[in-house]
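(Protein data)
===
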Amino acid sequence: MDAPPQRLAVIGQGYVGLPLAMLAVEAGYDVVGIDLDRSRINRLRQGESFVDDVGDSQLRAALDTGRYRASTHYGEATNFAVAVITVPTPLRDRSPDLSCVLDAARDLSRYV
C-alpha cells in the first residue's frame, strides 16, 4: 500500500513560493499555497499566473491534480509535514527586514 502524499505548506505565493509550490506538486506533494493578498489568491484559483517562471498551463495542471490549492487562510495549512516561508525580506539600512517572516511564523504557529 502506497503512503499518502506528504503535505507541504508554502507561505508566500510570489516569485519564490509559487515556483516552489509547482515543483512540489509535480513531485507528488499535496500543497497549500498561503498568501495574504486576496486578489493574488483569486488569480491563482482561476489558473492565472503572475510569475514569469510559472505559466498558466503549469498552474492549471497543478490545480487539476487536486494537489495544489491557494488560500489566504493559515488554517488551510493544518496537518502539513513541511512548511516553507517565502515572504519578502526587503533591505532596511542594508539589513534584511525580517518582520514579514516573523509575522508568517507567528500566524503559522497557531496550526502546528
In short: The radius of gyration is 14 Å. The first strand starts at residue 7 and ends at 11. The CA atoms of residues 12 and 86 lie 5 Å apart.
